[in-house]
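Hello again, I could really use a second opinion on something today. I've been staring at a protein lately and its backbone has me curious. Please have a think about how the structure follows from the sequence. I owe you a coffee for this, so here goes:
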Amino acid sequence: MSFYFAIVGTKDNPIYEAEFGTSKQGGDGVARFREEQRSMNQFIVHSSLDIVEEVQWATPTMYMKCVDKFNNLQVSCFLTAGNIKFLLLHDQKADDAIRQFFTDVYDLYTKTLMNPFYEVDMRITSGVFDGKVKQAAKKYL
């Protein structure tokens, strides 16, 4: 199973992107998207932003579960209080694990926001942040 994760800013700009595979059930953590699928991942995730913007006003929770589907892939969303969107493209149904992953990444993102050198909507290029996101993915997904 493969995952594509993106953090999208308030201006619908990508802040952070990562691909990873499952580490559960004997997985090695490597994304196995087909080459033609890999180029579509960003498009699929960003096309779901319209649905997220419609649903966000009707949902009182931050975790919106599956907001969009494309072929056999699903897009899950976590919306922060500052309107930053965490989007995960996946092909499995594991709501609890995905919610826990989003919660850990939200904690990491909050710590990044507290950095005085970071501004909202700026790309996150930190290797430490990337490593901790991938560590959370390995732990929950």
